[in-house]
Specification:
By secondary structure, this protein is α/β, with parallel strands linked by helices. It has twelve helices and 17 strands. It is 31% helix and 27% strand. Helix 6 packs across helix 9, helix 7 crosses helix 9 and helix 9 runs parallel beside helix 10.
Length: 381
C-alpha cells in the first residue's frame, strides 16, 4: 500500500490536516514540538482502525492510496459528532459509538464501489440490506471480492512501537505455548501477516525460521559490532514471586553474547532493544506495508542512529512516515524526503522542502530549515 494524498479533520478537537501529498518511500516529518507531527501519524493509523470497524467521534477523512493489488482507491468518509456521550446502558456498545453519515469508495478514479448516505449503502449500484451504521463499509463488506484487497491493504498500516514488549519487570514479553504451536508448520508470510507484535514475531522466528532470524542477527551485529551473537530464550524463573510465575514461565527475552565473553547476558540496553525491534519490523512486516515511527531517535544511542537510518533509507519495500527532532537524523536524510509540518491554530499544513526554497545542499539545508521553523513559530504566536 502507498498513501498518495490525505485530508483529515477531527471535529471533536477542531484539528485539521490540510491536503498533503506524500512521497512513495520515505516521508520525514519535521517541525517544532506541538505542531502536529504525532497527530498526523495517528490520523494515518486511524484509517486502519476505521477499516476495522472503529467508530471515531467527529472524524472526517479523504485518502487516496494505491492498494496492494496495484489499483488506485479514493476513500472518503465522515462520522457524526457527539458533543457528549451519555451511557444509558453501560452494557450496550451502541451507546459508545457514533454513526457514519457518509462514506464513498472509488476505484481507479471513476468506478464507485460503495456509497453510503446515512443508513443507505449501495455496492456496485445495488442497495444492500440494512447494515450497522457505526462500522465502515470496508469492515462490513470485507468478504466481497472488490473490497477485500482494500481491507488487506489498510491492515498493512503498522505503528512501530518498540515499547510494547516491556513490563515493570524488565524487557520481557509473554509467548503462550498455544500461539507457538500455531506457527510450527506455517509459512513466513503467515507470520508477517499475523498482526502480532514484533517481539512475539521474533520469538516465533527464532524458533521456526532460523535463516531469516540469522539475517536479522547479521543486521543487528552490523550496528553493534561488539556483539558476537544474539538469541531469544525463555526467562529464567528462579526467585520469581509466585503471583508472577504464570507470566514468566511463558516469558521470552533477548540475550546477547559479546565478543571475547563466554557467557550470555540479558543485560541489554534499551537502545539495543529498540534497534532490534526496528530491524525486526523491516523483516517481519508484509510487503508494501506502511510503517509509522514516532520520534525515531528516542532511546537510540548516537552510535546506532546512523546505521538504523541507513537500514531504513535502503529499504524500498515500504512507505515510511517518521517524525524526528534530532539534527543528526535530519541532516542524514536528503531534504528531498523532508515533509515540513507547520500549524496555524487548528490547521496543520505539510509541505515539501522546495516549497520553502530550502537549499538542496545538506550543509545549508538544515540552517534554512531552522529559519523556516522559527519564522512559522513566530507567525503562530
Amino acid at each position: 500500500m502507498q498513501i498518495k494524498t490525505l485530508e483529515y479533520y477531527d471535529d471533536e478537537y477542531k484539528w485539521e490536516l490540510a491536503r498533503v501529498d506524500f512521497l512513495q518511500n520515505l516521508n520525514l516529518l519535521v517541525g517544532v514540538s506541538g505542531v502536529g507531527k504525532t497527530r498526523t501519524l495517528k490520523a494515518i493509523y486511524n484509517l486502519k482502525a476505521i477499516a476495522n470497524g472503529a467508530s471515531l467521534n467527529g472524524v472526517k477523512w479523504n485518502v487516496c492510496f494505491v492498494g496492494d493489488d496495484g489499483r488506485e482507491y479514493s476513500w472518503i468518509g465522515e462520522f457524526e459528532t457527539q458533543e457528549e456521550t451519555i451511557l444509558v446502558d453501560e452494557s450496550s456498545d451502541e451507546n459508545q459509538q457514533v454513526r457514519l453519515t457518509s462514506e464513498r469508495l472509488v476505484c481507479d478514479n471513476h468506478k464507485v464501489l460503495i456509497e453510503r448516505q446515512n443508513s443507505d449503502i449501495t455496492l456496485n449500484g445495488s442497495k444492500t440490506p440494512k447494515l450497522s451504521p457505526f462500522e465502515s463499509v470496508i469492515e462490513l463488506l470485507k468478504q466481497e471480492d472488490q473490497i477485500s484487497p482494500v481491507k488487506e491493504s489498510l491492515d498493512n498500516i503498522i505503528l512501530a512501537d518498540s515499547t510494547s514488549y516491556s513490563t515493570n519487570y524488565g524487557k520481557v514479553w509473554r509467548l503462550p505455548i498455544g500461539m507457538l504451536r500455531k506457527f510450527e508448520k506455517a509459512k513466513l508470510s503467515n507470520l508477517q501477516k499475523s498482526g502480532l507484535p514484533v517481539p512475539i514475531k521474533l520469538s516465533i522466528l527464532h524458533k521456526f525460521f532460523p535463516e531469516t532470524f540469522n539475517k536479522i542477527k547479521e543486521a543487528f551485529i552490523s550496528v553493534f559490532p561488539s556483539v558476537s551473537d544474539i538469541k531469544i530464550e525463555t526467562v529464567r524463573v528462579n526467585n520469581i514471586p509466585i503471583e508472577l510465575f504464570d507470566f514468566f514461565k511463558e516469558g521470552n527475552t533477548v540475550s546477547i553474547r559479546e565478543k571475547g565473553v563466554k557467557d550470555w547476558t540479558q543485560n541489554i540496553s534499551s537502545g539495543m532493544i529498540k534497534t532490534l525491534m526496528y530491524i525486526g519490523e523491516l523483516y517481519l512486516s508484509p510487503e508494501n506495508s506502511i510503517i509509522l515511527i514516532d520520534e525515531f531517535e528516542n532511546s537510540l544511542g548516537v552510535n546506532c542512529l546512523d546505521s538504523v537510518t541507513e537500514l531504513i533509507l535502503g529499504d524500498k519495500r515500504f512507505q515510511f512516515f517518521i517524525t524526528s527532532h534530532h539534527p543528526y537524523i535530519i541532516n542524514n536524510v536528503s531534504p528531498a524526503y523532508w515533509k515540513i509540518v507547520t500549524r496555524k491554530g487548528g490547521l496543520v499544513t505539510i509541505k515539501n522542502s522546495e516549497d520553502f526554497h530550502i537549499s538542496e545542499s545538506r550543509q545549508k539545508a538544515f540552517i534554512d530549515l531552522i529559519n523556516v521553523l522559527e519564522d512559522n513559530e513566530d507567525m503562530e504566536e
